[in-house]
Amino acid sequence: MTVVRISDDSLAIACGADAVAAAFAAAGCAVERVSSWGMHWLEPLAEIDGQGFGPLTAADVAAVLAGSSDKAIGPVAEHPFLARQQRFTFSRAGKTRPLSLEDYAQSGGWSGLRAADLMTPEAIIEAVTASGLRGRGGAGFPTGIKWKTVADAASNPKYIVCNADEGDSGTFADRMVMEGDPFMLIEGLAIAGLAVGAGRGYVYIRSEYPHAIAKMQAAIAASADLIAPFEIEVRVGAGAYVCGEETSLLNSLEGKRGEVRAKPPLPALEGLFGKPTVVNNVLTLAAVPFILANGPQAYADVGFGRSRGTMPVQLAGNIRHGGLFETGFGITLGELVNEIGGGTASGRPVRAVQVGGPLGAYHPPSDFAVPIDYESFAAADGLIGHAGITVFDDSADMAMQARFAMAFCAAESCGKCTPCRIGSTRGVELIDRIRAGAGRAADAVETLPQMRNARKAPRTVAEDVALLEDLCETMKFGSLCALGGFTPYPVLSALKHWPEHFGVMEAAE
Amino acid sequence: MDDAARIAGIVAAHRGREGPLLPILHDVQAAFGHVSEAAIRIIAHDLNLSRAEVHGVVSFYHDFTPAPDPRPAIKLCRAEACQARGAEALVSTLPAQDKVRIETVYCLGLCSVGPNAMIDGRPHARLDAARLAALVDGLA
To answer: Which of B56, B77, B125 has its CB closest to that of A11?
Structure first.
């Protein structure tokens, strides 16, 4: 019987994989639902004896089975998009059934946990530190140091919290881990528990990811005996973007409003319920089993500068070959967008590339030589964040994108700190005024006699631009968390590189 | 069983957990389609919280609504990656109608195949005006 492998990832399902799978089954094939290879433009992708076919509809099935399909892409594993990658975290992508313990064990699963079981907690932390692994959620904090802080904290109990509130547009690697290789994340959580002496872990998943929630719950139930006495529980978010921020996430887990907490105290010392807590991103914890199984050096050998190991880059937006591209740090933005991504899906020239989600800077093609590395992106006035890369073609109005960044911040602000809560709304108003190009006169309140310090003269557009920059400065340095603090990145980068979209002719410096 | 008893049952099922409020609110929202003032009273009483505390949590999160809306809903992503693939133009093609609730979400995690939507937990990708209109018609 012909065995057909089709992904059951929610992206494949969104593209029609269930109908294709049903058509193969109706034609007498045995259908295996596996994880996604990450070649999203080819989904739904079917694999028969290693040969790939995609993107398919149910109508293509007869031709595929007859050997006459024009959707054939040759051997899947040798596809150029995959051949250029270095897959550590996504080594099983496309190859295993996500909820099969048998597939997981046969592909090297649990070997990291077995290795950790034989090590002292200090040795586990030493291995993670030596690997150079840094937090993949965006801040890039060294994971080993965070774990050591929690391990050394005197208070008990301790918690592991996995941040799976992947709200950034242009990112989907966390979702692919949870839907495609949930046992790997569970293994990473269990290793973290051993390392710091925590008995309980929470995975906080956003409610927009129902498939990931279901897969994680099923995987946790199936593997409970294997990781005992460590226990893991899934908690579901409730539609608040800001809960991706670690302290806000902790409040949400505790059953409170998802408001940001001031730091210090660090969550590593006073986190969930005031107890020492490791808060790590999905990709951070998912990288840990490889490090323990293969040794820290195997991980640290790959990378660039102080960014060691691999980064699962997510190619999104208006890009021809979108999907998941895991590679060592150091690949340039231009290689990712043009060579690997194949430019825009619309075929028009690239105007801007937003790196790092809604809070990441917009980069023009002149930044394409910048390598994917935490320090290099900081030097280019940007950030890697969670390594989501969203491509825009030349129909994008960058002033509107800047306005959206402010409006998004206003909609999603938790309200705790003033620069974010009020600054974002003032930012939307300012950008509207700059785009209208009219400047503004002093308003009724400003002209009241008792408003002695208020300015009475009209403001010009140039003064409004300066005010916007000043506002961004205040938000950047005055906000409690990255939502208010990083919203200026997309705004100022758009203003710097595309001043003409704001109606401002010379570059505002 | 009346509503109050059902709500009390939901609270009792979760009360022993650490941080039980969000799981309780999710279950109440799923069971009743909203979190009513009466539900807030019961939850607050049973968890020994003030009504203000529970109300504060309910009103903070987009997923909890104060009043029911029995219409079927389509969640349409309007975040950056879908914008880059024409989501805003797509929104402008939506016909005026009031049988289906059009909700905005920011990101369904399908950012390479947008514009995207989700209906009752089921994702839909690569939407164009015709496919979106068909989805809306299918719900109405």
So the answer is: B125
